[in-house]
Amino acid sequence: MNLIEQHWYRPRGWLTALLAPLEGLFALLSAGRRLAFRRGWKQSEKLAVPVVVIGNINVGGVGKTPLTQSLLRDFAARGVKVGVISRGYGGQAQTPTEARPGSDPALVGDEPLLLAACGAPVVVGRDRVAAGRHLLALHPEVRLILSDDGLQHYRLARDLEIAVLDGRRGLGSGRLLPNGPLREPASRLRSVDAVVVNGSGSGAALPLPEDLPRFAMSLSPAALHALDDPSRQRCAADFAGMRVAALAGIGHPQRFFDTLAAMGVAADRQLSFPDHHPFAAEDIPADADAVIVTSKDAVKLARALHDAAQRARLWVLPVQATLAPDLCGWILARLKMEHGR
Fold it and tell me: What secondary structure does DSSP assign to 257-307, as a single string?
């Protein structure tokens, strides 16, 4: 974590003063953009099916991807045809592009590949309105679209907004970028339809309206599996006596490292990379007997590593979200959608 990110959660007075002018400029531009859409100076565009935005007001990983994966599984179990649109961060696609299992993460990004693996159609695009229309043209059977991120993409009209919050870190200093981790002020949470609080803390200290629907999410690790063969699995005890490196290029790497430690995996090294890092072979420590990575990083490493011996040392730790109460059912009820339609 660099100095600025440390400052977001452990503020330094001198840095707060130094960054205040930039924060003020960011606040002015952000508020002006919101006002333009609210006053109708800029128009939001509606898609042919309901849109549910799953986003956050702060930067850094809060668990949107495992939440969306969980919802996709729940909607599928209820027979509801759902599609996903995503910005495709880390990808180079210039026009709306469908992300399928096996697509190049350098083109469509890493998170869309994890969502596509759930069996739902996924389209990435910088313009989420265009991405949504492209998805519906390819898959007219879709009856509901989840927008992975996009809370601030106001040109896309939405039927519901769900904000995801980190129960442990909260909103940090509560200040806007670059003085704090917020893309929008905390007051923005008063206008969303629901919040999902990921992890310990249950959001008790978060500035949330009492009547705002709140859902608790917990992330549970699944079995560790080999990068090349998910049927090859290991438990924590299997790594005893080995030189283990833990590697993560996600928004909040420490959560991944803490999960491994709680499982009883003793990692000699914890290697953090920027979110959406384009991994290369040289990022893998040559002297480690085993390297444990996140599912998100695994989709990129599977393409970046060509040496069989190097690939054989990589193990993937998937996580699965559990929600309480039933968020999928709440969404269907709010949208007045029936199961199987």
Answer: HHHHHHHT---SEEEE--TT----GGGS-TT-SEEEEEHHHHHHHHHH---
